[in-house]
Automatic annotation (TrEMBL):
This is histidine kinase. It comes from Streptomyces albireticuli. PANTHER family: NITRATE/NITRITE SENSOR PROTEIN NARX-RELATED (PTHR24421), NITRATE_NITRITE SENSOR PROTEIN NARQ (PTHR24421:SF10). InterPro entries: HATPase_C_sf, HATPase_dom, Sensor_HK_TwoCompSys, Sig_transdc_His_kin_sub3_dim/P. GO terms for cellular component: membrane. The lineage of its organism: Bacteria, Bacillati, Actinomycetota, Actinomycetes, Kitasatosporales. It is an enzyme of class 2 (transferase).
Length: 436
């Protein structure tokens, strides 16, 4: 049995690998540049500026006076080793490359003068500047770049020790260890910050998706309830059209044919509506939930029962609504009013248990609409809430129902710590204002 040859990815050339490793990980965004506060963004420039001024004077003085290097050469080396620290705020990898090259050049230049037991190849001020650069580098670059930087530093340190073994000192090994520690700390801080930002972004995306899913589920639920409302009317139309020729005597053949056409059209519309509802239903809704969805939908007349059940749950609720109730309320308005009151009371039970609540249902005859008002006072201090924070998804359903009938919804906290839900559900222009 023959085996197909394995295909392996071509290995990158050493030059391409080095180019990838020493390429900055991201755009030259300033350190702390994501902060919204201006003084926080300026902290990085202030600190690096102060270190630059300190290193510039100290390096030039130490190299010329303590090590005996020519003042001109000492000044040039000091400029190359100190000034790029300012660049590290935006481009730490480039700043490190310039300073590291200047440090190596300074170590080679010190071979021309006797060091007399002084630290070599890295004087103390160069070590301080390099540690700051490596910290900034660790906060910005990838892990493999940090490993490559430390490896290159170690290789150069060992090479210089072989060039002048009598000049090497223990401080070179100490500096190499400190360099590794600083790189590890900076890299850990960067990875922790990246993880926190990724988590915050994922939480934002998840919350947006959750809100979108809740909105779609609420719209689907409303569509199912509307199906029951409209299906009832279509069924009535079908029955009336089918029975008209038997109830009304003396109908001409044209009228009988017209009634038959109306009945057939109503049946076809009802079938299409049920087919559309099948798309909206989930697979689980076809079983047990299906029987519940075909049950009569509640309306304003069921609000007293809803209030009574809430009172039994331990919430003091007062109800005010017209008696008798208006006749022939639009079914969409009737159902929406009940659902809004139901959700508002559920929110009170969850977030403000024991709070005194008032439910008011009234008919605005001047503007032609139904008013639903649910107001609760501040919750009692000794009764802990069932939920300390909410997603606001219940309010999403209220808004969708109000928008469905072209009404308005006003929700928000009250000065005394309570909450208010006020919905106005207008009657459609085609329907008459119901009478008591």
């Amino acid at each position: 049995m023959s085996q197909s040859p394995r295909t392996t990815a071509p290995r990158p050339s050493p030059l391409a690998f080095a180019r990838d490793v020493f390429t900055p990980a991201g755009p030259p965004t300033p350190l702390l540049g994501r902060s919204r506060r201006r003084f926080v963004r300026a902290v990085a420039y202030v600190l690096t500026g102060a270190v630059t001024i300190m290193l510039l004077g100290t390096t030039a003085t130490v190299l010329s006076e303590n090590y005996g290097l020519q003042s001109d050469i000492a000044l040039v080396l000091a400029l190359l080793q100190a000034v790029p620290v300012l660049l590290a705020v935006r481009r730490p990898l480039l700043a490190w490359a310039i300073v590291f090259t200047a440090d190596v050049a300074g170590a080679l230049a010190l071979l021309s003068v006797p060091t007399e037991g002084r630290p070599w190849p890295w004087p103390p001020m160069e070590i301080i500047g390099m540690l700051l650069l490596l910290l900034l580098l660790g906060l910005r670059e990838r892990r493999r770049t940090l490993v490559a930087v430390w490896t290159l530093t170690a290789v150069v340190t060992v090479a210089l020790a072989f060039v002048a073994p009598g000049r090497s000192s223990l401080i070179s090994v100490t500096a190499l260890v400190l360099d590794g520690v600083v790189l590890v700390v900076g890299g850990a801080l960067r990875e922790r910050g990246d993880a926190r930002r990724a988590l915050a972004e994922q939480e934002t995306i998840s919350e947006a998706e959750r809100a979108r899913r809740t909105l779609l589920e609420e719209r689907t639920r409303i569509a199912r309830e509307l199906h029951d409302v409209v299906a009832h009317h279509m069924s009535v139309i079908t029955v009336q059209a089918d029975s008209a020729p038997y109830r009304l005597t003396g109908l001409p053949p044209e009228a009988r044919e017209e009634f038959a056409t109306i009945a057939a059209t109503a049946r076809e519309s009802l079938t299409e509506m049920r087919r559309l509802l099948g798309v909206l239903r989930s697979e689980d809704a076809s079983g047990e939930a299906g029987g519940v969805e075909r049950a009569p939908q509640p309306g304003v007349e069921r609000i007293p029962q809803l209030v009574e059940a809430t009172v039994r749950a331990g919430l003091p609720v007062k109800l005010a609504m017209p008696d008798p109730l208006p006749d022939a309320l639009p079914q969409t308005v009737d159902l929406s009013a009940y659902r809004i009151a139901q959700e508002a009371l559920a929110n009170v039970v969850r977030h403000a248990p024991g709070a005194a609540t008032r439910v008011s249902v009234s008919v605005d005859r001047d503007r032609g609409g139904l008013m639903v008002l649910v107001v609760n006072s501040a919750p009692e201090a000794e009764t802990p809430p069932l939920e300390t924070s909410g997603t606001g998804h219940g309010l999403v359903g209220m808004r969708e129902r109000v928008r469905l009938v072209g009404g308005t919804l006003d929700t928000g906290p009250l000065p005394d710590g309570g909450f208010r839900v006020a919905a106005r559900l207008p009657f459609t222009t085609e329907e008459e204002l119901p009478t008591a």
